Amino acid sequence: MRYEFVLATLKKLMAQGQLAPDESVLAICAAAPEQRVFQAAGLRVVTISNLDDRFVKPDFSPYAWSYQNAQKLSFEDNSFDHVFVSDGLHHCDSPHGALLEMFRVARKSAIVFESRDSALMRLACRLGLSADFEVEAVIGSGLTHGGVNNTEIPNFVYRWTEREFAKTIQCFYPYGPCRFNYFYGMNLPLERLAMQRSPLKRMVALVARPAASFVEWVLPSQANSFAMVARKPAQHELWPWLERSERGVGFRHSFAETFRQPEGKRGSYFN
Question: Which stretches of the chain score pLDDT less than 50?
Fold first, then answer.
């Protein structure tokens, strides 16, 4: 978990009024690192969840605990103000499915920290400075956990782009204009480099630090630490072709009048 970047981003969201200390937060794929960052940020109403079967009545006080599969959350729609994840979606065999579960359960926003799919990250993978499969996580978990769906099978590291994130959310929520924010930071793969037997690759870390700082300053979107925030619109904010009635949200029939329909083609657009 990129502690400094996550904490700095949460504080920015709080300063912008998008996150408040007393708003409820569900953290998926979470554990002690998330507990520490929430306490440092001053968040007070948090539920930490995970599907790790090694957790038996864990104590994450002052926060609540819930055993949850991120891809099939047991909570009702809009149960929490915000749903949070840090470096957890890429451990799911369906990262998009887990993201949509987050957005379903969130009343206000989904806050996601993952790696960005950038040209620089693809180059780092080719050079062996990063990886497409997270072998180190499994090794660090005693060869029994830490992979896809928290198994011993190393997971593919799914990296995101801004456009992909927004398209995924808007397909799931076609009712109104969702709003998106993105934040960038640099997180060097020091853990991976430290585990390499090659002295040359370990020495790369020394050179990488100043280079990474330069990239973060000049081309922030090429940084590998990436925060994506999707905010739901207010209930009254519907697209102009929709309306709310006693039957729920439906198509506004009067909106069709703004379109010219060819004679004999009414109701047969797809025929």
Answer: 217, 271
pLDDT in tens, 248-265: 999 999 998 888 766 655
- Is the distance from CB of 115 to CB of 8 less than 8 angstroms? no
User: 199 is written with which tokens?
Assistant: 């002295």
- Residue indicated by tokens 């206000």: 108
State the sign of the Cα–Cα–Cα–Cα dihedral 1, 59, 51, 53: positive
- Tokens describing residue 262: 């060819």
- Say how far apart CA 237 and CA 158 lie, in whole Å: 32
Residue labelled with tokens 């398209």? 167
**C-alpha to C-alpha distance for 53 and 233, rounded to whole angstroms:** 36
Report if pTM > 0.70: yes
CB-based contact 91:30 (threshold 8 Å)? no
Q: What are phi and psi of 141, to 5 degrees?
A: -105, 20
